[in-house]
Structure to design on (615 residues):
C-alpha cells in the first residue's frame, strides 16, 4: 500500500528518490518523506500530502546532498496521515533509519516492552516500533545491523518490505521482505531499491526481486548478499533482465494515466492474445494451460478468487467457462474465501486474478488453496509479482503498466486471457464444436478494432457526463455477460467521482432498487442485442414509466432502445460472450469525464491505493 525507494551509489540520491516516489505514488499518496545521508549526517523532510508537497518541503528545509537516500509515499494504516507519522522514521538514538511498506500486527506488545526499557515514540506508527526493536536487538546482542534486522524480524508478525541504514555504516543498506514487494536494481557500483522497478528503469535493466522471508545486505563495491530471515540460509540472487521501458510508465500526451490506459485497450488486448491466438492455424497456444491441460479438464470445478475489478473479470469468466467449456465455476471474493473454511479438494483448480499480483487477500487465498492440494493458476499483469511466483502456473495479461488507480485495461485484458483459456478448455473437452471454436477465434481477433471504434464515442459520452455530473446517485443494470459490466461501471463511478452507484442484474431491479427510481435518477443500462435483449428493453420501459433517465449502451444500428432511452451510446456488434470487452469502454469514459468535471483527482482518488497489500 505504500511505495518505498532507496538509493546508494555515486549519484545524488535526491532526484532519483523524488522521481521514484512520483512513479510509485499510485501505491499510496497521503503523505511522503525522504532522508538523505551525506556520510556525515542525515537530513529528513516529511509531510502530509503528496510528493509535490514533499518537494516543496524538502527544498525549503534541508540540504539536498547525499549519495544515500530513502524515500516513502504512504497509504496510512497505523496513525493518521500527518507529518509525524510519515516515513522515514529514526530509532531513539537517531543512528538507524527505516522506511516500511506493510503492517506489523504485534507492534502494540513490542511497543509496551520497549517503553518499559525507556524507549519513547514520536509517531503512532508500527514502523517506529520496528526500528526501535532493531536498535534494541543491536544493543543487547552486540551485533551488526544486518543481524539485528534479522533477529528483530523473527519477533514480528505481519507484512513488510523495509529498507534500513545505520549512520555508522555509510556504504550499506539492509532490506527485507515478507508479503510486500521489494525489487533491487543493480547498476555500476550503485544500487536502487523500490516497491517495483519503475523508479530505476532508466538506470539499469538488471534487478533482483526478493522472495518472501528473504533479506539482503546491500553494500557498495560488493555483490548483494541474500539470506533467509528465518534460518540464516544463504539464498542466491536471481538477476532478471527487465523488459519495462520508460515510455510505458509516462503519460504520453494524455492528461491522465486513466485516459491513456483506456485508450491503450485496443493495443493491450492485441498484446494479450498475440502469439496465443493463432486463428489461421485454428489453435490457441498457452504454455501454462498446455502443460497442465489434464488438471483443468479433470477438474471438478474451477474456483476463481480476486478482489475489486479483478473479481468482476472473474464473474465474466464464470459465464464464459460455463458457457464455452461446461466446467462448473464459483467466483469468490478472496477476502471472504480465505476466512470461511471453504471445501477445497485436489480435484479443484483455483484461478487467482490480479492486476498487481500483490493483493494480500488474493495471495492468502492462493496459499490456503495450495495447502489443501488444489492446482492454482494465476492471471496477473505485473511480471514477477508475488502472485505470479506463488501460483503453480499462470498466464500474464501483457497489458503493460497500469498506473491509474482505477483499473481499466487490466479488466479487458483479464477477460481476454480468461476467454482464451475457456476456448482452449472447451475445445479440449469437446464442449465446443470445431466450427464454434473457429467463430470465436475470428470474433476475438476482431475485438481490438472494435474497441478502437467504441472509443470514438468519447465526445458523446463527454456531453452525457455534463448532464449527470451532479447526480448524487446512479444505477447500472445489465444481464448475463453484462451484469458484471454493470458492477464494474458502478465501481468505476464510485471510486473516481465519489458518486454513489449500484450495479444490479437488470431483472433484480423489480425486487427493490426500482423504489429508487424518480426523475432525478440516471440509470445506465447495457442493452446489447443477443443478451436477453427483449427482457432488458422491458426493464428500460419500467424505468421510463417511473420517469428515470436512461443512458443505454447498445450495439450499432439499434433502433428500438434509441426510441425509448434519453441517451444512447453505440458500440460495434459482436458475439454475446465478447460483448463485455466493448460495453465496458463507454462506462470507463463516462466515469472519467464525470470525475474530471467534478474536479476529482482521477488517477489518485481519495482513500485508495493501487495495490492493496494489507488485509
Ligand atoms: O491488483 P488487483 O487486481 O489484485 O487489485 C484488486 C483491486 O484492489 C482493484 O481491482 C481495485 O478494485 C481497483 N481500484 C478497481 O479499479
Amino acid at each position: 500500500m505504500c511505495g518505498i525507494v532507496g538509493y546508494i551509489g555515486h549519484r545524488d540520491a535526491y532526484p532519483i528518490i523524488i522521481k521514484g516516489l512520483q512513479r510509485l505514488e499510485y501505491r499510496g499518496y497521503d503523505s511522503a518523506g525522504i532522508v538523505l545521508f551525506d556520510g556525515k549526517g542525515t537530513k529528513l523532510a516529511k509531510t502530509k500530502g503528496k510528493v509535490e508537497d514533499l518537494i516543496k518541503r524538502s527544498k525549503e528545509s534541508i540540504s539536498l546532498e547525499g549519495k544515500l537516500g530513502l524515500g516513502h509515499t504512504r497509504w496510512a494504516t497505523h496513525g493518521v496521515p500527518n507529518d509525524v507519522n510519515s516515513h522515514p522514521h529514526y530509532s531513539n538514538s537517531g543512528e538507524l533509519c527505516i522506511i516500511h511498506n506493510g503492517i506489523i500486527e504485534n507492534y502494540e506488545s513490542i511497543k509496551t516492552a520497549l517503553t518499559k526499557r525507556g524507549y519513547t515514540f514520536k509517531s503512532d506508527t508500527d514502523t517506529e516500533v520496528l526500528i526501535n526493536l532493531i536498535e534494541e536487538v543491536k544493543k543487547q546482542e552486540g551485533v551488526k545491523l544486518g543481524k539485528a534486522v534479522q533477529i528483530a524480524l523473527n519477533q514480528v508478525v505481519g507484512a513488510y518490505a523495509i529498507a534500513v541504514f545505520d549512520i555508522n555504516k555509510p556504504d550499506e543498506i539492509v532490506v527485507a521482505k515478507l508479503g510486500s514487494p521489494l525489487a533491487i536494481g543493480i547498476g555500476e557500483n550503485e544500487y536502487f531499491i523500490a516497491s517495483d522497478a519503475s523508479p530505476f528503469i532508466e538506470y539499469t535493466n538488471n534487478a533482483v526481486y526478493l522472495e518472501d522471508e528473504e533479506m539482503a545486505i546491500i553494500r557498495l563495491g560488493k555483490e548483494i548478499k541474500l539470506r533467509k530471515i528465518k534460518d540464516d540460509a544463504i539464498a542466491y540472487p536471481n538477476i532478471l533482465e527487465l523488459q519495462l521501458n520508460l515510455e510505458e510508465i509516462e503519460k504520453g500526451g494524455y492528461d491522465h494515466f486513466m485516459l491513456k490506459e483506456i485508450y491503450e485497450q485496443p493495443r493491450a488486448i492485441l498484446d494479450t492474445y498475440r502469439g496465443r491466438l493463432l486463428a489461421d492455424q485454428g489453435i490457441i497456444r498457452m504454455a501454462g494451460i498446455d502443460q497442465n491441460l489434464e488438471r483443468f479438464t479433470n477438474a471438478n470445478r474451477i474456483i476463481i478468487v480476486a478482489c475489486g475489478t479483478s473479481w468482476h473479470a472473474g464473474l465474466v469468466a464464470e459465464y464464459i467457462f460455463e458457457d464455452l467449456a461446461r466446467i462448473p465455476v464459483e467466483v469468490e471474493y478472496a477476502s471472504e474465501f480465505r476466512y470461511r473454511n471453504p471445501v477445497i479438494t485436489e480435484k479443484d483448480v483455483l484461478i487467482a486474478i490480479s492486476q498487481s499480483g500483490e493483493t494480500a487477500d488474493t495471495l492468502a487465498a492462493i496459499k490456503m488453496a495450495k495447502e489443501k492440494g488444489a492446482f492454482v493458476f494465476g492471471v496477473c499483469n505485473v511480471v514477477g509479482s508475488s502472485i505470479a511466483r506463488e501460483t503453480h502456473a499462470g498466464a500474464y495479461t501483457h497489458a503493460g503498466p497500469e498506473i491509474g488507480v482505477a483499473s481499466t485495461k487490466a479488466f479487458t485484458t483479464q477477460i481476454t486471457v480468461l476467454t482464451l483459456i475457456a476456448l482452449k478448455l472447451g475445445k479440449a473437452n469437446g464442449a465446443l464444436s470445431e466450427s464454434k471454436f473457429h467463430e470465436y477465434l475470428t470474433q476475438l481477433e476482431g475485438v481490438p478494432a472494435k474497441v478502437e471504434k467504441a472509443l470514438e464515442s468519447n465526445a458523446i459520452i463527454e456531453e452525457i457526463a455534463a448532464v449527470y455530473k451532479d447526480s448524487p446517485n446512479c444505477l447500472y443494470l445489465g444481464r448475463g455477460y453484462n451484469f458484471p459490466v454493470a458492477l464494474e461501471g458502478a465501481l468505476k463511478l464510485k471510486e473516481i467521482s465519489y458518486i454513489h452507484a449500484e450495479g444490479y442484474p437488470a431483472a433484480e431491479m423489480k425486487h427493490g432498487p426500482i423504489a429508487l427510481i424518480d426523475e432525478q435518477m440516471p440509470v445506465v443500462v447495457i442493452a446489447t442485442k443477443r443478451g436477453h435483449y427483449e427482457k432488458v428493453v422491458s426493464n428500460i420501459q419500467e424505468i421510463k414509466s417511473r420517469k428515470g433517465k436512461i443512458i443505454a449502451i447498445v450495439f450499432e444500428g439499434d433502433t428500438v432502445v434509441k426510441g425509448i432511452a434519453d441517451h444512447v451510446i453505440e458500440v460495434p456488434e459482436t458475439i454475446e460472450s465478447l460483448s463485455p470487452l466493448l460495453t465496458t469502454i463507454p462506462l470507463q469514459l463516462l466515469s472519467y469525464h464525470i470525475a474530471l468535471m467534478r474536479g476529482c483527482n482521477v488517477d489518485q482518488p481519495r482513500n485508495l491505493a493501487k495495490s492493496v497489500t494489507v488485509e
About this structure: The chain has three domains: 3-248, 252-445, 455-602.
